[in-house]
Every structure is written in structure tokens, then in C-alpha cells.
Amino acid sequence: EKGGETLSNSPCIVYNFKTREIVARPVRILIVDDEEQIRASLKDLIVTAGILECQISLADRGTSAVNILGENGIDLMFVDIGLPDMSGLDVVRFAISRWPKTVSYIVTAHDDIHHILEAGRLCVRDYIIKPFEPEQILGIVESIQKLALPFTVRL
To answer: pTM of the full predicted structure?
Structure first.
């Protein structure tokens, strides 16, 4: 954050040194999948649930995801492994190298043991096989809600 420092374990609570405020900001979510229907489904699930205030970015390629990550940093990512230009695991690797508090989930049709083991080494929270149940995604979003408390405190 410009002019701010992340406090506690929550990437969504920021102290702004200029204004001397602690501010909760929207959760930044990135959905990376080459299938438009999957991107739209995940986005719709998150938005229609209305569980948390969020900013959602979509990417259909790994390079697009890396560009988004390079600009902003992301709190939560849903990433497909089988992207047309690079592995989704490479996207996760890039994300955690720049933004170590990024929470990542793999959402893929590939249930290859090598991918699963590599995802575990990268501290991916879960490996979700397509087709997924909406409840799986909603449970994740509900748990992330705890990161975004709606308040501002002036010091």
C-alpha cells in the first residue's frame, strides 16, 4: 500500500502514515482461468453472495495475471493450472514472491499428483477439481470475509 503498512495477519487492514488512520479496504480478488464461463461463474458466485466488499480482477492468461499482480498485489487468487501461456503454478509462484500474504486456490480439471504436490509446496490453500460445487467457493469467500472489517480508526 502506498503510504501505508499492512498490520497484523490481515492484508486488508492498512495503517496510513500520512493520515494516521487504520483503514479496512476491499478484498482484492484475482480469478485466472482461460475458460470465460469459469471466470464468470466464480465472479458471479462471489458478487451475488454479497458476503464481502471486494474488487475482482479477471485474467484469461498467465501473463495477464502477472501484470495485474505486478501493479496491485492481490489478497485472494483462484488460479487454473492449464493456462495457454504458462502454468497457473508459475502465477502462484510469482504472486508469493512479490506478495507473500496472497491466499491462493487452484481450481482446475487437472488432478495430477505432481501438480498437487507442487501446489502444496507453494502453500496453496486448496486444490479444487472442476466441476466445483458453489458451496466450496462460498465457504472460501466467507472465511476471507474475516480479513475485511468495515472500520476506520484515527490515531
So the answer is: 0.81
Question: Angle formed by the axes of helices 88-98 and 113-121, to 10°?
Answer: 0
Which of 62, 90, 96, 61 shows the shortest CA–CA distance to 76? 96
The grid cell for 38 is 469459469
Round the CA-based radius of gyration of the chain to a whole number and report it. Answer: 16
Per DSSP, 26 falls in state P
Task: Report the alpha-carbon angle 6-142-137, nearest 5.
Answer: 110
* Residue 13 CA: distances (Å) to CA of 108, 130, 139: 30, 32, 21
Q: Can you name the residues that pair with 68 across neighbouring β-strands?
A: none
DSSP summary character for residue 87: B
Does pLDDT of 125 surpass 60? Answer: yes
Q: Which three cell numbers stand for residue 82?
A: 492449464
At residue 6, the pLDDT reads 40
